[in-house]
Design goal:
Layout (H helix, E strand, L loop, with lengths): L5 E4 L26 H12 L7 E3 L6 H4 L5 H9 L5 H4 L18 H20 L5 E4 L20 H9 L6 E5 L6 H6 L6 E8 L22 E6 L5 H19 L3 E5 L17 H13 L4 E4 L6 H16 L34 H4 L2 H14 L17 H4 L10 H21 L18 H13 L4 E3 L6 E3 L32 H15 L6 H6 L22
Parallel strand pairs: 1-2, 1-3, 3-8, 4-5, 4-7, 5-6, 7-8
Antiparallel strand pairs: 9-10
Helix pairs in contact: 1-10, 5-6, 8-9, 8-12, 9-10
The protein binds zinc ion.
């Protein structure tokens, strides 16, 4: 396979420098999202001697101003100054910006976001300049972050910021999301444009974030340009491939993207703590291999992934796929600082388990594939995507801001920012479906307007309900936005966020229970503590030690 120029973004002193500050960049003890997995991945990539085969770049950290190209000034300002101590007050007791338990205001949260976003923006620039064919940022892929609010462990949407950067150069960008959860934040951002096609493969049904049906296809000019592939528990490599390949092939044919962003969320792997799919490392990496083969400028991003060892294995393998050396590397892991945790097999593999593939069992997979392909067939020919080249100085025009007057790059930045705001204003001011909207057509007993409003409120997140990624349950936000915090004494939930930061504290017991239940149903055995694992010699016996949690990872260094 031919060579590709690969750029790899990694910040050696930021979120991963556990040695410098043990408390930095952890979401809190017991929280399943562990930024530490980026370091474990990096150490494994290093151990496989891949670093000297690619351009290793330290990302320029994204500034607050850069973040406001998508997010509101108010939200970015909040994120820039919030601390664990001030979170309660600055979030108006958990009713704004950081709602619910998923997104704690951990120490250094803004810096963490600036590294993640800086990497994805840098990746886009590297691709756009032609310096790289493939750019990798495993610290990115935080697809749930919303314009004015954190969601599902994501605070700043590095993906949207990266795609906005690509749109300066490329006429059409394809976003593909193989995280177990719907890529709602990115879909939402580009819901009304035909310059970005989003395609998300995800579990749907009583599962976070609760969006991503095949009825959700985009709106206005963007109608048809949001593709959703809702799946059920237990999807295998074979099933996944049988829908991924035809759908993506069709998209490449009809949309002809000039660049592709692939979110490689690793919670779709078998045995993930919060996921419910049954993909092996090879099945997951097949998506990367498939896109590399097409030789379109490609960005690989991280995302979810809560069984840390398997995340590290898979992203390491996918780095090898980007380089085209996956067949040359040893499946027996080289020595690395985390070697002992990869036992007892010490191999670069994520095996499937014996859960049922409900997609096959209930016959839904064929239907989903047919629907998606039908949607894509209706797209051709799409007049506005037939332009082969969009020179930089006419980006504004193609974003619908009239004739470009050739002003310099900074002005274009501003226009892109305006465009993102414009899209949101459009969506938020919509009270009823437009005549060409699909919303409502499938609902028999609702007026289309109320159906649309319900969809919209879920999608845009302006309603009072939110779903938690941790529990997959809807919950109410206790009070209207914008109330005075003085009005709110005595209504605080008994589980305040601050306790994450008390040393030695455990997290929410309900959350622990949910994770245990999930592990039980996925793997047939519950999660165990790290200390219990260590007492047994770090082994699960014949089960391969695939799922111990890394809550103890902070104390390892
Ligand atoms: Zn996820």
């Amino acid at each position: 396979m031919s060579k590709r120029k690969v750029a790899y973004f990694y910040d050696p002193c930021g979120l991963t420098n556990i040695a410098a500050d043990v408390g930095s960049y952890t979401y809190g003890l017991g929280h399943p999202m562990k930024p530490h997995r980026i370091r474990v991945t990096h150490d494994l990539v290093t151990a496989y001697d891949m670093l000297d085969q690619m351009h290793v770049l330290r990302p320029t950290r994204a500034t607050a101003e850069t973040m406001t190209k998508f997010h509101t000034d108010e939200y970015v300002h909040f994120l820039n100054r919030v601390t664990p101590e001030t979170a309660e007050e600055l979030t108006y007791h958990g009713t704004r910006f950081l709602v619910g338990e998923d997104n704690p205001a951990f120490e250094g949260v803004f810096e963490f976001c600036s590294i993640s976003a800086g990497g994805s923006i840098g990746a886009a620039q590297r691709i756009a300049s032609g310096a790289a064919d493939i750019a990798i940022n495993w610290a990115g892929g935080l697809h749930h972050a919303k314009k004015r609010e954190a969601s599902g462990f994501c605070y700043i949407n590095d993906i949207v910021l990266g795609i906005l950067e690509l749109l300066r150069i490329y006429p059409r960008v394809l976003y593909i999301d193989i995280d177990c959860h719907h890529g709602d934040g990115v879909e939402e951002a580009f819901y009304t444009t035909d310059r970005v096609m989003t395609c998300s493969f995800h579990k749907f049904g009583e599962y976070f974030p609760g969006t991503g049906t095949q009825e959700d296809r985009g709106r206005g000019k963007g109608k048809g340009y949001a593709v959703n592939v809702p799946l059920k528990d237990g999807i295998t490599d074979e099933s996944f491939k049988s829908v991924f390949e035809p759908v993506i092939s069709k998209i490449l044919e009809v949309f002809k993207p000039s660049a592709v962003v692939l979110q490689c969320g690793a919670d779709s792997l078998a045995g993930d703590k919060l996921g419910c799919f049954n993909l092996t490392m090879y099945g997951h990496a097949h998506c990367t291999q498939f896109l590399r083969k097409h030789n379109i400028p490609l960005i690989l991003l991280g995302g979810g992934g809560y069984t840390v060892k398997n995340v590290a294995r898979t992203w390491t393998y996918e780095t090898a796929c980007a380089l085209g050396i996956e067949n040359d590397i040893d499946v027996n892991l080289p020595w690395n600082p985390y070697f002992e945790w990869f036992g007892p097999r010490y191999r670069l593999e994520v095996a499937e388990n014996n859960m049922d593939d409900l997609n096959i069992k209930e016959g839904s997979l064929d239907k989903v594939r047919i629907n998606a392909l039908e949607q894509l067939r209706e797209l051709t020919p799409a007049p506005s995507v037939q332009l082969q080249d969009v020179p930089r100085d006419s980006v504004g025009k193609h974003l619908g801001f009239g004739i470009d007057d050739g002003q310099p790059r900074d002005d274009l930045d501003e226009r892109l920012a305006q465009h993102a705001r414009y899209i949101y204003n459009l969506q938020e001011s919509a009270e009823a479906p437009s005549s060409d909207s699909e919303e409502g057509s499938s609902d028999s007993d609702d007026s289309s307007a109320s159906h649309w409003n319900r969809q919209r409120s879920r999608r845009i997140g302006t309603g009072k309900k939110r779903m938690s990624l941790l529990t997959n349950q809807y919950y109410d936000i206790p009070h209207e936005y914008g109330f005075s915090p003085h009005d709110y004494h005595g209504h605080l939930s008994k589980t305040t966020r601050r306790r994450f930061f008390q040393s030695g504290s455990r997290w929410d017991e309900n959350v622990e229970q949910v994770i245990n239940d999930r592990m039980q149903s996925v793997n047939g055995y519950p999660r165990h503590s790290l200390s219990a694992t260590m007492e047994r010699g770090g082994s699960w016996g014949d089960r391969g030690g695939e799922d111990d949690d890394w809550d103890g990872d902070v104390s390892m260094h």
